[in-house]
Structure formats: C-alpha cells, structure tokens
Amino acid sequence: MDTTLIDQLVYYFDLFGTAVFAFSGVLVAGRLRMDAIGVIVLAAVTAVGGGTIRDLLIGARPIFWIQDTTYLWVILGTAAFGMWLARVPRRLPWYVLPVADAFGLALFVVIGAKKALLFGTSGMVAVVMGVITGVAGGLIRDVLAREIPMVLQKEIYATACIFGGVLYTVSLSLELAHIPAMLISMLGVLAVRITAIFRHLSLPSFALRD
C-alpha cells in the first residue's frame, strides 16, 4: 500500500481518536453540570492534552494542533454534538465509548512513540512519550473535575499503553517496517484494553493497613 495513503489513514484515525477522547471530556463535563465553556475545556484537554505535553517535552515546534487547526475544529464539533446528544433520550450501549476509546488509545500510543523516535529519543523514552500521549489528557481532565484520575486507579489503561509502546519499539529494533510495527502495537493495546473492559479486569490496589 502506498505510504502516502497510509499516512492519510493514520491522520484520519488520529482525528477520530481526538473526537472520541473529546467526547469523554464532554461526558464528564455533563455529569458535573458545567456550562458550554466548561464542556469545551474538558473536551480539549482530554483530546490534545497528552499530545501537547509530548510535543513540549521532545521539543516539537509548533505544537501539533497549532500547526493543524483541524484538531480544534474536531474538538469544537464534538463538544457541540455531545451537548446536543445529551438531550436525546436514546442511550448508546455501555461498551461503545470504552471500545472506541481503546481504538483511539492504541493509535495515540503509536503516534506518540513514533514522533518521539523521529526527534531522536531512545526507545525507552519513546515508550514513555507514547504513554503520555495516550493517558495525560484524561489525567488532566480528571484533575480538573476533582476526581482521582482513572489512570492512577486499578483500571488497566496505562498498562495497555506501556505494552503497546514496548511492542512498537521492539518491533522497530527487530527491523520490522513501520506499518507492521504499528499494527502489532495497536493490536497489543486493543487486546489488553478490550479484554479488561469486557472481563472487568483490574490491577491489584495498594492500600496501607490502619
């Protein structure tokens, strides 16, 4: 398949992931009864917060959403759609958003790790950047909502990101082409995350004895 076509598909899937992450921010804002500005803020930080931190850490200039404002339009459109959807009585099945989120997460991890490697980081740092790209936006969202971030609780979320990032960097170190490495990484994230969603798996919690 043509490399240009692959890059375009990754870009459109990235926008899809941005919309899914933004929508999760809209849901949190709606649960807390925020106004329209609050909805947009939570949608934005969830969607692009991780990528922004990644770009700042690796020295990527300009920040990706400043360079391509399509991301901002996707966030605004998702926020508007989410506020409209909240008024519709019909509800989506419980698993639709978590599964869509898992696809967005898988792609964000690969994009974050790939961009870090392009800026000359080591494989370990690339894994960290992939994790940050995937989870930091949700972490900021939860902090603004005054909730304990999901990624810091028992949820198998960051673990899936770490696994996917390691698969990606190891695949490249074994001289696999970018596309196979990307697919292996994404499938790894999806396998871990979707299994955790439907089987209700979680990590053991840490608690001090009284």
Taking the sheet with the most strands, its summary is: none
Beta-strand percent range? under 5%
State the helix count.
Answer: 8
> Order of helices and strands, N to C?
HHHHHHHH
Helix content: over 70%
The counted number of beta strands is 0
- The shape, in one word, is globular
Arithmetic mean pLDDT: 90
Structural class: mainly alpha
As residue ranges, the low-confidence spans are: none
This entry's quaternary arrangement is single chain
What is the rounded Rg? 17 Å
N-C termini distance: 60 Å
List keywords for this structure.
210 residues, mainly alpha, 0% strand
Structure description:
- The structure is a single chain.
- This protein is mainly α and about 210 residues long.
- It is globular and about 50 Å long.
- Helix 1 (about 5-30) crosses helix 4 (about 70-85) and helix 7 packs antiparallel against helix 8.
- The mean pLDDT is about 90.
- Helices cover about 75% and strands about 0% of the residues.
Write the layout of secondary structure elements.
Layout: H1 3-31, H2 36-58, H3 64-67, H4 70-85, H5 96-118, H6 123-144, H7 158-173, H8 178-199
Helix pairs in contact: 1-2, 1-4, 1-5, 2-4, 2-6, 5-6, 5-7, 5-8, 6-7, 7-8
Give a short synopsis of this structure:
The chain is mainly alpha-helical. The chain has eight helices and no strands.
